[in-house]
């Protein structure tokens, strides 16, 4: 029997192919246009071009669905909402760093059920949909190899866990640096991989926990189906499910409550 979001996932993957063509064409371009938005974060002509392309394709294929995007805001009113981050990791993109991605998700009644994460400079693709598992391909390993199914780690003790925190400054500005330090004392190792990559490494089982602050729904929505279909768990740092609370905590599920407890104890 066909799963309910099979066609939506196929559409998202097709649209992501088109997004990759645009973002890669402008990546490392000497004439890349970079401006600052009112919140002082950077935006490039690639960000806006990618989002326009995605919106146009969604409007043609799913005209009744709503859209929320980083660069052009919200449009439409529907229980089905496509959520777009055209280039997650714009500071990396404009500096020539490879850790950036296009994030595309479908949320139904506020719950992300389809997620596609495409990082063409890394040669990586991750995707997942409710009931269909989570998958990845890695062009660096083998451009023609079949997709590999993802599964989170089986690490069950914090003392054996590897954690990515993304940004010390972010935790400090949220008033939660002491929380992070307490967590770091309880785990095996800490790193700051950053952007979407931390969460995909959790889905792959290479990391056990990832978290950060100062996020928007479009930073998180596409990550959630991939993580959950890989067997993981995703909440805010305070334990609220979904991408709507401004922070992210992803884990293999086994460690999630322990991490929440440590972070809560340090409030």
- List the total number of helices: 9
Q: State the strand order across the main sheet.
A: 4-3-5-6-7-8-9-10
Name the helix and strand elements from N-terminus to C-terminus, one letter apiece: HEEHEEEHEEEEEEHHEHEHHEEH
Strand content: 25-35%
Low-confidence stretches: none
Write a structural description.
The structure is a single chain. The protein has helices at 6-26, 45-61, 90-95, 168-173, 177-186, 197-204, 217-220, 223-229, 256-265, and strands at 34-36, 42-44, 66-69, 73-75, 80-88, 101-108, 111-119, 124-129, 134-138, 148-149, 162-164, 189-191, 209-213, 233-235, 247-251. With 267 residues, it is of the alpha+beta class. It folds into 2 domains: 6-149, Fructose-1,6-Bisphosphatase, subunit A, domain 1 (Fructose-1,6-Bisphosphatase, Chain A, domain 1); 158-265, D-Maltodextrin-Binding Protein, domain 2 (3-Layer(aba) Sandwich), CATH 3.40.190.80. The mean pLDDT is 95.
Write a short abstract of this structure:
This protein has helices spanning 6-26, 45-61, 90-95, 168-173, 177-186, 197-204, 217-220, 223-229, 256-265; strands at residues 34-36, 42-44, 66-69, 73-75, 80-88, 101-108, 111-119, 124-129, 134-138, 148-149, 162-164, 189-191, 209-213, 233-235, 247-251. It is α+β, with helices and mostly antiparallel strands and 267 residues long.
């Amino acid at each position: 029997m066909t799963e309910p979001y099979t066609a939506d996932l196929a559409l998202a993957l097709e649209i992501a192919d088109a997004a990759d063509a645009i973002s890669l064409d402008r990546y490392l371009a000497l004439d890349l246009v970079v401006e600052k938005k009112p919140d002082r974060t950077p935006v490039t002509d690639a960000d806006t071009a990618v989002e326009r392309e995605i919106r146009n394709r969604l409007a043609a294929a799913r005209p009744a669905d709503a859209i929320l995007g980083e660069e052009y805001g919200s449009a439409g009113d529907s229980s089905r909402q496509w959520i777009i981050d055209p280039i997650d990791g714009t500071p990396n993109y404009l500096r020539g760093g490879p850790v950036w991605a296009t994030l595309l998700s479908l949320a139904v009644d506020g719950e992300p059920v389809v997620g596609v994460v495409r990082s063409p400079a890394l040669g990586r693709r991750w995707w997942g949909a409710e009931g269909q598992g989570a998958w990845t391909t890695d062009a660096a390993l083998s451009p023609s190899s079949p997709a590999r199914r993802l599964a989170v780690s089986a690490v069950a003790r914090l003392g054996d866990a590897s954690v990515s925190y993304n940004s010390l400054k972010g935790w400090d500005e949220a008033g939660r640096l002491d929380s992070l330090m307490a967590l770091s004392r309880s785990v095996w190792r800490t790193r700051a991989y950053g952007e979407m990559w931390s969460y995909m490494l959790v889905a792959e089982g290479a990391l056990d926990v990832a978290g950060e602050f100062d996020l928007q729904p479009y930073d998180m929505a596409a990550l959630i189906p991939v993580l959950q279909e890989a067997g993981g768990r995703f909440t805010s740092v305070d334990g609220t499910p979904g991408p709507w609370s401004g922070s992210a905590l992803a884990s293999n599920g086994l460690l999630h409550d322990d991490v929440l407890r440590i972070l809560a104890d340090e409030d």
